[in-house]
Specification:
Bactericidal permeability-increasing protein, domain 1; alpha+beta; 6-stranded mixed sheet; single chain; 7-stranded antiparallel sheet; 483 residues; 10 helices; 25% helix
């Protein structure tokens, strides 16, 4: 059975890594105040609606109708959270508690007893609404989902307590067999839940969570792409510094805050390419290798990149930036490393507007994609081995592994002949490996896959590869300045 502990609604956001943790922003009583505001608006209506339903004729049984109802629902709400709650991509159980509550009423009885003997009773109870804080890693955000309600004792434990106020001995059997079972059974629970369901507690709590998601959106823009939500009494997730838990430390016995830890989105993927333009067109007026003249970036549509507060997650990690001259062209060869696997990566390049260029003063440099479109996806290396043949060998040799999608013919700029030759050798090796494998039952499927890959790579739409993708090139075009 899950133990629930008091929770004041505090939320702390932080950046965490294997070595360190740094608090970003604290939100005191965020969910508590949101829930209280929602209940303040809903409580008068819930009381009126519940009293109207309870007072309907023959609600409990034929001839048994409640009247002189006095319903007092709790004015203050409280929150509780599962002890040790933690999640990277799921839900943390929570409770919204409405207690103590009191109902006092009289009940008609079958005519044999007469109205002078109508019993009066009181019901002490509490209402607990189950909800959860859900971690949505694909959006890098938190959301609240509200579940069912249940009745408890007035302290939110045990069962409701029904007490007869004036039941004489002759009516004891009737009361115990009719009124008491109805309030202690599913009918009253269903009625209370139906009244509460008319009010959007999920919407109220999600609105309260919006400032946290705004912070996560900003962190996504800064390169954070993973989140973990947890309470300080949870185990430290693998790969995170113990300092992350220490951020949420409180005085002994004090309710702990919810920690929302953002982590950098990294991997072992590599993207290579070049930026090329004619020497005759001029060059940036900065020192080679012109690192300050271009703005190269990589981002993924994760984190807050979806929805109203969209911010792509920046995963730019430039490892190599080398300049060379090639057949009358300026060429910058670059490499991006540490990129995440199995996520579409948007690679963009632009000139730095603050850096002037030599050449025709009536033209301005504009960077365009060259030989590819869409997003780049890097797949992790295959781990399986089949009949003693390693997966990399099955894929057609080292040339395919290092450059799974060679640069196709018809490049916008002239490409060195030896480079084209190497690329086509990679394709030829893939095809030869596929033909050889198709003669063996165990290799037929993988051989067909290689043939398919050899066909797809010539198209270069949404290029992808294993571990590394090459040929993500850009060309600098020179267009007329606006008049």
């Amino acid at each position: 059975m899950t133990d629930f502990l008091p929770y004041l609604g505090d939320v702390l956001t932080a950046i965490a890594s294997a070595d360190n943790a740094e608090q970003r922003q604290a939100f005191d009583r965020l969910l508590q105040d949101g829930a209280q505001g929602g209940w303040d608006d809903a409580r008068p209506q819930v009381e009126d609606q519940l009293k109207a339903e309870l007072g309907r004729g023959d609600r409990i049984a034929k001839g048994v109708t409640l009247y002189d109802l006095d319903l007092r629902l709790a004015k203050q709400v409280s929150l509780a959270r599962a002890g040790g709650g933690s999640s990277m991509s799921g839900a943390i159980p929570m409770e919204l508690r409405l207690a103590p509550d009191l109902l006092i009423a009289k009940s008609t009885t079958p005519s044999v007893f007469g109205s002078d003997f109508d019993p009066k009773f009181s019901l002490d109870f509490g209402v607990v609404i189950d909800f959860s804080i859900n971690v949505q890693p694909e959006k890098m955000s938190l959301s609240v989902q509200v579940g069912s309600a249940r009745l408890t004792g007035k302290d939110c434990t045990g069962s409701p307590y029904l007490d007869s106020q004036n039941v004489v001995a002759d009516l004891a059997k009737f009361f115990a067999g009719t009124v008491s079972p109805w309030f202690g059974g599913p009918d009253y629970v269903a009625l209370v839940e139906a009244m509460l369901a008319r009010h959007d507690f999920a919407g109220v709590l999600n609105a309260a969570m919006r400032p946290v998601n705004d912070v996560l959106g900003q962190l996504a823009k800064e390169g954070m792409g993973l989140i973990t939500a947890l309470f300080p009494d949870a185990p430290v997730p693998g790969g995170l510094s113990p300092k992350a838990i220490q951020i949420g430390a409180t005085a002994a016995g004090a309710p702990a805050p919810l920690l929302v830890l953002a982590q950098p989105l990294t991997g072992d993927g590599v993207i290579r390419g070049e930026i090329r333009w004619p020497e005759a067109a001029g060059a940036p007026q900065v020192e080679q290798p012109y690192a300050n003249a271009f703005q190269l970036s990589a981002s993924v549509p994760t984190g807050a990149a979806v929805g109203e507060f969209s911010q792509p997650t920046d995963v730019t990690h430039i490892q190599d930036w080398q300049y060379a001259q090639d057949n009358g062209d300026h060429v910058i060869r670059y490499a991006l490393r540490g990129l995440p696997n199995d996520r579409p990566i948007t690679v963009e390049c632009a000139t730095n507007a603050e850096i002037p260029w030599t050449g025709d003063a009536t033209k301005i440099p504009m960077v365009e994609r060259s030989g590819w479109t869409g997003a780049v996806t890097i797949h992790p290396g295959l781990q399986l081995e089949h009949k003693g043949i390693h997966a990399d060998r099955i894929r057609g040799g080292a040339a395919v592994e290092l450059n799974p999608q060679p640069i196709p013919p018809g490049h916008d700029r002239e490409i060195a002949p030896d480079r084209i030759k190497l690329d086509h050798e990679g394709i030829a090796k893939s095809a030869e490996s596929a033909q050889a494998l198709e003669q063996q039952p165990v290799g037929r499927t993988l051989g067909q896959e290689i043939h398919q890959r050899a066909t797809v790579i010539l198209r270069r739409d949404n290029p992808s590869g294993t571990r590394e993708v090459d040929g993500i090139d850009f060309a600098v075009e020179f267009v007329d300045k606006p008049r």
